[in-house]
Amino acid sequence: MNKLSRTGLIAMAIIISLLLGAYFGYKTSNEQAFAEDIIILAKQHQFIEIAKNNGTDEAYEESLLGYLNILDALEGKRSSLFSEDVHAIDYALTHTRLALLSEKRGDLKGKAQHLQSAESYCPKTVMTTCTGEVLTEIVIKLDNNIY
Fold first, then answer.
1. Rounded to an integer, what distance in angstroms lies between the CA atom of residue 119 and that of residue 107?
2. Are 113 and 125 in contact (CB under 8 A)?
3. Please, what is the end-to-end C-alpha distance for the chain in angstroms?
4. What is the 3-state composition of the chain as percent helix, strand, coil, each rounded to the nearest 5?
5. Does 16 fall in a domain?
6. How far is C-alpha 124 from the chain's CA centre?
7. Can you tell me the distance from the alpha carbon of 3 to that of 76, in angstroms, rounded to the nearest whole number?
8. How far is CA 58 from the centre of its chain?
9. Number of H helices, E strands in the chain
10. CA-closest candidate to residue 68, choices 122, 118, 104, 111
11. What is the pLDDT of residue 43?
12. Is the pTM of this model over 0.85?
């Protein structure tokens, strides 16, 4: 093998190594970003539970609004664990919880707005029957550990 052939093979091996490294680095960074997103969701869920069970209604509302912000940030980042229908159900149930809080403080306009927002996600869910009433029933059951 002459010097030129050896140099060409070495250059090709370096290029292939760089491409493989870039590919695996990209895959790893996406998986790490997804793991970080899941951790953020879990921490926010923990904050919601603490606010709901041990805080004021205002703290609970703030935690739910924070969760909506996280869902907004995750819009478009789909995976098998966080598909479009899961995302839509999270939005719908969170808006339903906000509607119940609005009703509790006598804000019927706020309740109607949140229920309308909740229902707007219904077509993206797997639910066959999805109305404000059904969503409210689901939230009450979930929050009281009836399911």
1. 18
2. no
3. 72
4. 80, 0, 20
5. no
6. 14
7. 51
8. 22
9. 5, 0
10. 118
11. 79
12. no
Asked whether residue 127 is assigned to any structural domain, the reply reads yes
Q: Quote the CA–CA distance of 30 and 146 in Å, as a whole number.
A: 37
Residue type at 77?
K
Joined together, the tokens standing for residue 79 give: 């995976």
Cβ–Cβ contacts within 10 Å for residue 29, how many?
A: 10
Domain that holds residue 103: 36-143
Please tell me the total count of domains within the chain.
1
Helix (H, G, I), strand (E, B) or coil at 106: coil
Q: What is the pLDDT of residue 80?
A: 58
CA distance 61 to 45: 13
In the numeric block, which tokens belong to residue 120?
A: 């707007």
Higher pLDDT, 86 or 121: 121
Q: Which residues contact 30 (CB under 8 A, 6 or more apart)?
A: none
- Let me know if residue 17 belongs to a domain: no
Q: Does 12 fall in a domain?
A: no
Distance of CA 24 to the CA centre of its chain: 25
Amino acid at 2: N
Confidence of residue 48 (pLDDT cuts 50, 70, 90): confident
